[in-house]
Amino acid sequence: MASETEKQRGTRRKADREFVEAAAVPMLVLGTDGTVLVANAPASALLGLPLDGTFFAERFLEEDAAERLALARRSTDGAAERCITLTASHPGQPARVELALGSERIDGSIIVTAREVPPVAEGADHRSLASRYRQLFEHNLAGIYRCDLEGRILDCNDSFAQMLGYPSQRALLESGDPSPYLEPQERETLFRELKKERTKSRIEVCMRKADGTPAWALQNLALIDDGERVFVEGTMFDITARRLAEEQIAYQSNYDALTGLPNPTLLRERLEVALSQAGRLTRHVCVAFLDLDHFKAINDTLSHRVGDQLLQLVAYRLQNCLREYDTVARLGGDEFTVILHHVKSREDAAHIAGKLLASITEPFLLEGREFFMTASMGLAMSGIDGKDAETLLRNADVAMYRAKDAGRNTFEFFGQTSGDHAAERFELENDLRRALQRDELRLHFQPQIDSANGRVLCMEALIRWFHPTRGLVPPNTFIPIAEEVGLIIPIGEWVLEKACTEAAAWRRDRGWDLRVAVNLSPRQFHQKDLPQVIARVLEKTGLPAEFLEIEITESNAMRNPEMAIKMLVDLKAMGLRISIDDFGTGYSSLSYLRRFPIDSLKIDQSFVRDIETNENDAAIVSAVIAMAHKLRLTVIAEGVETESQSEFLRSQQCEQMQGFLFSRPRPVEDLHELMSRQDEKLN
User: Fold this and answer.
1) End-to-end CA distance of the chain
2) Which phi and psi angles does 589 have, rounded to 5°?
3) What's the confidence (pLDDT) of residue 2?
């Protein structure tokens, strides 16, 4: 046998003591000379043993007790020979005791299980040890089993079967189930070690229950070779409840109890990993601190319960804005931190920051009431604003307070002063006020095509700003400014009139019976005189009402559903077509959706983008199409970029599509070429 170090021996002794003392049945560990190394309280009471150890054989009346014990230890001829009956010199009166000996371990010690033999009539056979051993095996509170080296159960007691969810030993053995070891690779590793060491104590193993769920067990294992075959004998105690408690503690130490987001501890771990990866990939990590504006008023004026619900919704929205590998964590209160991986530039980070802030500005529906929130955000870039986690977190926090000082509902980079950012925004706002006067705004048009034959049915009007020095300014840069300062009303009316003018010219000059679709901003849609404004534009441009399609976003419609219904009814009465845009990204109630007098739903491109690879997105798209058809609505899919996306949508009977696969947004002068190619294809 391999030798043990003193440290290993002490560790194993401690494990033996914990295992034996936890047993509900009399159990003890004997040394090679019969010394009691460990005994639990039931064994001490049964055998009259002190708990501090004694020479075992001296506790029995038979003269040959020590010799019989030694013979039993050396026996390898089966269960009966490993079980002996002795008369113990129990204080008060002798007692017949049956001892079942386990396998010898690396240091020669052995675990013994004991039970008192009840008095029997004179002449009874006290040597039917196999039967008695079997009773001890079957009635033990511990789970006991034997299995082959592939983990298949050869024999077990009821306790073992019940721990694995079977009503009895017989039910388990007749079930035909393979090895209950949950992970074959883990079992193979364990048994390979067992072949070398012969015994293993206090091993935590994951087993598979009858219903397939995992169960954790604390096991003592011994490798038995009876001359004919080699098998494993194990004793098992169910520790599933303890493991679940440990996992719950581990979860609570890493995740926020209210939102389920990572907490500061896990955030720092992930940030360290992100920084090490970014160093190898020469990309930036961006740390963003986000704090809700005036959140305290929610708790103070309503209740902490409503405040908690709001925090949960904020956490959900922030997660939905991020990529799989990004992290959003809650620091506590109304503070959140975001880790953005693989960021190329500040422009990339700013784009994501804008999406995060925009998600907060959408109304929250809590207990039947709408709430509006904004947030302030500070950003710090690795390699620019700091190299280590603590520096980036600290600098993002500083930048966040700059954003609050700049007026809230905005973001600031640590390396860019709030004055610089405010000055740039002020300059952009002034330029936007003059953009209409200077004729810097343009419309581009993107076709919506018939899925069945590829015919163009409608052109969506999309605004572009060509700044004389900045060049093309993205809509997501200037539209929020226009919305905030009220410029969206004159800009929106310009888009409406320009789009209707072009559509009327298509019909008059080119014979194109195409609808034109115009997006309405939230502020436009909530204008009380919107029907009158549209009526004046249609009269001025000469475009029939049925050739104008109005698009409003799902979240815009749900901001005030009852007002939206009234407005949509008025617009529908004028003969306009109405579409719900970006469907799937808002929080529509079906009870409202069926009351909206609309013609079509536009599935947001975020769902279309991954329908080839993401089963959830594919299922959502299919469900939206089916629901829309039940409501007798037309479905338009946005963001179609590949043939396989197009084929999937056609297979689901999506009537119309729009995206780069068919055409990018084009200036009006390029539409003739597009329509000519369509006619050639159709003819």
Assistant:
1) 90
2) -95, 130
3) 46
Identify whether the C-beta of residue 271 lies closer than 8 Å to the C-beta of residue 328: no
- Distance separating alpha carbons of residues 628 and 555, to the nearest angstrom: 18
Tokens of 538: 């249609």
Q: How do residues 104-125 score in pLDDT, each as one tens digit?
A: 776 778 888 887 776 654 444 4
Consecutive H or E run containing 304: helix 304-321
Q: What is the DSSP string of 597-613?
A: --SEEEE-HHHHTTTTT
The closest alpha carbon to 208, from 178, 181, 184, belongs to: 181
Dihedral sign (CA 491, 494, 500, 502) = negative
pLDDT higher than threshold 90 for residue 424: no
**473: phi then psi, degrees, rounded to nearest 5:** -95, 120
| Chain mean position to CA 175 | 35
176-204 burial, b at 16+ Cβ within 10 Å, e below that, comes to eeebbbbeeeebeebbeebeeebbbbbee
**pLDDT tens for each residue of 280-294:** 656 789 999 999 988
Per residue in 133-168, pLDDT (tens digit) is: 555 566 667 788 888 888 888 888 888 999 998 998
Q: How distant is the alpha carbon of residue 662 from its chain centre?
A: 36
Could you give the CA distance from residue 414 to residue 417 in angstroms, rounded to a whole number?
7
Helical (H) or strand (E) element with 342? strand 335-343
Give the pLDDT confidence of 452-473 residue by residue, as tens digits: 998 999 999 999 999 888 888 8
Question: What is the rounded CA–CA span in Å between residue 85 and residue 219?
Answer: 27
DSSP conformation class of 119: P
| CA dist., res. 289 & res. 286, Å (int) | 10
DSSP labels, 414-454: TTS-HHHHHHHHHHHHHHHHHHTTTT-EEEEEEEEEETTT-
